[in-house]
Amino acid sequence: MPNFTPEEKALLAPHVSNIDGQVFVANVLGLTGAIFARYSRARGGFREVLLQEFIREGQLDAQKADDLIRRVLVGFGDDSIGELDGVHLALEGVSNLATKFIEDKRIGGSPIEKSSRYVLFDEKDEQGRFKFLRELRIMKSRYAKDYEDTLNFCFETYCSLIEPMQTHFRRRLSLENAEFKLRENWDGKKRLEELTDDTERRDFEKTYREMIRTKACDTIRVVLPAATLTNVGIFGNGRFFQGLLTEMYSSSLDEMDGLARLAHRELDKYIKRYIERAKPSNYLMAKEAAMQTLATRLFAGVSPRTADQVVLLDNPTNAREYLDHTIAIMLFPFLEHPTEQIREVVSLLPYSKKLEILKVYNGERKNRRDRPGRGLEFGYPFTYDIQGDFGIFRDLHRHRMLTQQRQKLTTRLGFFIPEEIIEVGLGSIVEDARDRSADLYEKLCQDFPYEAQYTVLFGFNVRWNMGMNPRELMHLTEIRTIPQGHSSYRKVAQKMHALASKRNPEIAALMGFVDYNDYPFARGDSEAKIRAKEHILGKK
Q1: pLDDT tens, residue by residue, 447-462
Q2: Half-sphere exposure of 409 (CA within 13 A, CB side)
Q3: Are 56 and 26 in contact (CB under 8 A)?
Q4: Where are the domains of the chain?
């Protein structure tokens, strides 16, 4: 290990976690990539390079780092350097539709967003308005009033459900009958009446309140529209953000372009050189538009047929079937049809038409960075076609070590009303919100086919497909069937495993932690574990 002088150690101290050790954490935001780029060709280690080449008169030489990044990225096109520097980006007050677009970028970024399962979306802004995106193009159109009135009605319906649903769940499981394990040294769960310690009683009551509130959130989110404003935070590296910004700039939604400009401005302050090539992609925009036109023309007059909620697609057995499967996956995001139906239509097309689809999907590539979409990624042993409400999709969409594609949000695939809402006699007001959302969606589709998605409620079904290997299937089905998971996506994950068990029982048998039980109030156990950990931290 190098022997640094006391003066050098003082210079290094703010920038590395360990001055003398073999392993340390670097803290040189925005410059780390440049230092590593130089360090990979230098005799010394990171700290020596930092001292010798990037510190001048006791200060970081940001200009040298900037020049080096520019030289590497622009001169040699080494995009991998962009993976060595990362920042946290927060995007707040954005629509739920926007968060899904942002989270579609799966490699190099780690997102987290405000949860519709834990947070009530009943707040209003400073002007007394419910917090949903007033999409500019719609608000300048003849649909503005209808849009505002319909989404206000949906939020009013949501708010009207909050207390009745909490009351309903309190009746199903009263405070007196609830049981929680609030301390790790307890033998099992206890009731409130068994507790004499005031702190334990307060923890018990808090756990119960949180359980009831989150159960209500789980149930009533079906009437929230995709325009609902939320927050999303992302940690990503420079390469990730460059790709994300490019796709945001190239989106058909004005909201995405506006967010790209704002994000680009803020990211420039820290990782400017890594994202300087981010701009609207004529390649992406032209390819997407051409594929939408081609898909619409090919399936004109072909009505989407109904399909099971979860379908495990048959794997291709020969070259012809593989070609048909790949083309069907390419067409999938531009249609409303299930994958199996698309494959059947594709199989009947002449070979020349199939080649045309491949050519359009590939687009007019000008360089190696112009790449077509995820249709070329599919070839997994397990590929599922799934139809579930937007709330389910939002939860399962988080998985990254697989390939996902979705179709545009629509109101044409059915709507899910939780049985608990029907039990309390409030199904009719949810149906009113559903119908108003569907009516507005159909009106907007005439002039704003992409913007119409903002009006789609969480309870409407969306169709997407997911391709994965057995290891990812194990991860998804085991984590998404844990007791505290949302009942709706637990059922989807259970069906995915059940279908895999029929096809490959030996492989599916390895997934030993898939849970097929039902847990109406499992969120209480999760909250109780939080209280137990809080108690331990409090003692420390």
Answers
A1: 999 999 999 999 999 9
A2: 31
A3: no
A4: 6-84
